[in-house]
Prior knowledge:
The chain is mainly α. The chain has one domain. Helices cover 71% and strands 3% of the residues. The chain is built from 7 helices and 2 strands. The chain has helices at residues 19-40, 53-62, 64-94, 100-131, 138-171, 176-191, 204-222; strands at 11-13, 226-228. A two-stranded antiparallel ribbon has the order 1-2. The chain is elongated and about 65 Å long.
Amino acid sequence: MESSAIIQPGANVHRGPSPGIVATVSVLLFATSLVLTKVVTNGAAYPMPYFSFDKIRGYFLQFSELERFDAMLQFGSAVPLGIFTAAITSRLKFHGVNASGVNIALYGGIGASIFIAISGLCGWVISQLSAFKETEAIHGFQLFDFITGGVAHVVSLGLLIAGVSVTAAFTKLIPRWMVWLGLATAVCCELSTLSLFFPIFYVFIPLGRFPGFIWMIAVGFTMPATRINKGQ
C-alpha cells in the first residue's frame, strides 16, 4: 500500500485514493454478481439477444430477485471504476505526462463507468417488470441492458486501457508486460464492436473485460505514487 512506501527526501507524493484499491473493489463487486448468478441459477445460461422471447421471459420471471441484487452490485461497481479512472489519469499528470492519451483514457473510463451503471439500472427495471409479471417490455430492457453492459462498456474500457498503457509506456511508469497486456486487451475490447452485426464476435466481450480487470488492478498497484524532484 502507498502508506508503507519509503518516501525519499525531495520526493513529491501523489494525493488521492489508491487506484489499486478502488480497482479491486470495482472488480470484486462485478465478479460477485457473476458468481452469485452462476450459483443461484445452477449454471443456467444468461439470456443472449438471439434467445427466443419465451426463454428470456422465463429466465427473468424465475430469477427476478436475483436480477435486482445483481443490478445493485453492477451499479455499485461503476462508482469505484469512475474513481479509478480519475485517480490513474491524475497520477499520469502528476508524473508530467502531457499527451492526448491521458484524455483518451479519461474519456474511456468515464464512458465505461456510465455504461455499466446504466446496465445495472436496466437490470433493476427488468427485475421490477418480472416481479409484477409485466412481460411486454422485458425484452427491450434486456437488450439495452446487454448492449450497455457488454459492447458499450467494453469498448469504452478499451480506450481507458489503451490510453494509460501507451502513455505509461513512454515514461516507463509500468512494467513492459503490463503495457503489452494492456494493448492486447484493448484490441480485443475494440474488436467487440463487430458483434453489433456479427454475433460470432461476442467472444471478444469477455476477452476484453476479464483481462482488463486484471490489468486495472496490476496497474493501480504498480504505478508509482511518488516523484523525485531532480532539482533538489
